[in-house]
Amino acid sequence: MAEQDFEERAAEKEQASIIKLSMQTLKMHYGLNPGKYREPVRSIGYQLGSELAKLLPQQEQDKVADVDDVVKGLAPYWMHYGIGEMYWVDKAEMLLAIQFCSDCLGRGYGAGYTICPFKEGLLEAVIKSKLRKNYHVEEVECCGTQATNCLFKIESILD
Ligand SMILES: [Zn+2]
Ligand SMILES: [Zn+2]
Q1: Which domain range does residue 84 map to?
Q2: From ligand 2's centre to the CA of 67, what distance in Å?
Q3: If you ran DSSP here, which 8-state letter would residue 114 be given?
Q4: What's the rounded Cα separation, in Å, for the pair 121 and 45?
Q5: From the CA of 106, which ligand is nearest?
Q6: For residue 22, is it within any domain?
Q7: Which phi-psi region, left, alpha or beta, contains residue 153 (left: φ > 0; alpha: ψ -120 to 50)?
Q8: What spacing in Å lies between the alpha carbon of 139 and ligand 1's midpoint?
Q9: pLDDT tens digits, the chain, 159 residues: what are they?
Q10: Which residues are bridge partners to 87 per DSSP?
Q11: Is the pTM of this model over 0.70?
Q12: Which H or E run includes 154?
């Protein structure tokens, strides 16, 4: 990944700080298992993802044709700001991994369940906003389930 090509912009940088702070604060506040607050946590991720989708500049709308194009825009951002490394485990099956998650590191390893509803919501919002279609994102493996990465299954929803 061409890290050196990444161009910092103030609004994006601020959004990265807000995203990281929210992730860490939510995990600190609710502990590893947000329990009944799972949906609200997911919703906060979704809202910040919707804002991020508007900021990410490297993609003009007409050049974003599929989920892979969205990931190509999001992954360098995610890495540049130290939130984690995003890569396809299986592009055809739309299984996207995040490694070195800033919010999982040192916490939750082996909690026994997935602990990242925030990232689910955020990914879902960015993909939906960029493609203007309905998608559902679910975390299927997680640092919390002793996986080495968090793994997200992205599904297109026909409406
Ligand atoms: Zn996770
Ligand atoms: Zn993780």
Answers
A1: 6-156
A2: 21
A3: -
A4: 5
A5: 2
A6: yes
A7: beta
A8: 7
A9: 555 567 889 999 999 999 999 998 998 888 777 788 899 999 999 999 999 999 986 556 567 889 999 999 999 999 999 999 999 999 999 999 999 988 887 666 667 888 899 999 999 999 999 999 999 999 999 988 888 899 999 999 987
A10: 97
A11: yes
A12: strand 150-156
> In angstroms, rounded to a whole number, what is the distance separating the alpha carbons of residues 149 and 116?
11
* pLDDT on residue 44: 97
> What amino acid is encoded at 158 in this protein?
L
Q: How far apart are CA 63 and CA 74, in angstroms?
A: 14
Strands (E), the chain: 85-90, 95-99, 135-141, 150-156
- CATH code for the domain of 42: 3.30.1380.20
Partners of residue 150 on adjacent β-strands: 98
The domain total for the chain is: 1
Contacts of 20 (CB under 8 A, 6+ apart): 81, 82, 83, 102, 103
Query: Does the residue 94 lie in any domain?
Result: yes
Do the domain assignments include residue 51? yes
Tell me, yes or no, whether 1 lies in a domain: no
Nearest ligand to the CA atom of 113: 1
Q: Cα of 159 to ligand 2 centre, how many Å?
A: 31
pLDDT score, position 87: 97
CA atoms of 21 and 46, how far apart (whole Å)? 15
